[in-house]
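[Help] Beginner question about ligand-bound structures

Sorry if this is basic. My supervisor gave me a protein sequence and a SMILES string for thymidine-5'-diphosphate and asked me to "get the holo structure". I don't really know what that means in practice or what format the answer should be in. Inputs are pasted below exactly as I got them.
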Amino acid sequence: MDQQARRGQFISLEGIDGAGKSSHLDAIERLFAAAGREVVRTREPGGTPLAESLRALLLNEAMDPLTESLLVFAARRDHVVQVIQPALARGAVVLCDRFTDATFAYQGAGRGFDLAVLQTLERWVQQQEAGAALLQPELTLWFDLAPEVAAERLAGARMPDRFEAQPAEFFRRVREGYARRAAEEPGRFARIDADTRREAVWAQVEAALQERGWLK
Ligand SMILES: Nc1ncnc2c1ncn2[C@@H]1O[C@H](COP(=O)(O)OP(=O)(O)O)[C@@H](O)[C@H]1O
Ligand SMILES: Cc1cn([C@H]2C[C@H](O)[C@@H](COP(=O)(O)OP(=O)(O)O)O2)c(=O)[nH]c1=O
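Answer (accepted):
No worries, everyone starts somewhere. Holo just means with the ligand present. The predicted complex, written as structure tokens, is below.
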């Protein structure tokens, strides 16, 4: 098997809270499993015991935007080193519920935190060796939905955490943050129109995966 065929695939799912991304993780995992692939399903913040501890703090404790950004990237560093890089090296599919685009969308666009600082942290955390490209997902499925619709879907569905309790205006900025990241890297992002019934959302997700030729 050549190097190219041995390399794993790194796929992230993104979108504002309530956009519907988690609803499709099982089906994506099944598709790859049916194609004979090892799937490592994980999430951010989280994915390791250390990062899951940081997640609990991030979702529940008040803190300033720099602290929030540092904790998000500290969790990410542990996750990258302990889980993501080893899985990709052995050829697995890494299916990650959120990655760094969420930081640019939530801490950057949502909180208004300095994007240059986030870019520096991104480089520290995701650069595998000097001069090498940053570790990024090969495909980011961006579930795009208006904040009002997402809020309606979440109402009554679960107890809001510190992010989900934010007003619609916050999520409008987060959505714009995702749109900017997608415009910067159109080849990496697949925009999924999430404002439709589940089956139609799934059809778009499946098409984005088929297009990459990973399910043969
Ligand atoms: N296409 C859809 N139409 C209507 N409701 C949906 C759809 N997809 C998901 N939901 C519901 O919306 C809520 C949020 O979905 P979820 O997948 O948890 O979102 P996310 O992981 O993006 O926060 C859940 O109650 C889910 O059952
Ligand atoms: C990865 C990441 C998540 N978040 C936020 C977005 C979400 O509101 C929250 C947790 O994400 P998520 O796992 O989607 O929440 P849930 O399990 O409730 O659907 O963390 C950031 O603010 N910055 C980040 O870098």
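A couple of things worth pointing out: Confidence is low (pLDDT under 50) at residues 1-6. Residues 9-212 form a domain with the Rossmann fold fold (CATH 3.40.50.300). Feel free to follow up in the thread.
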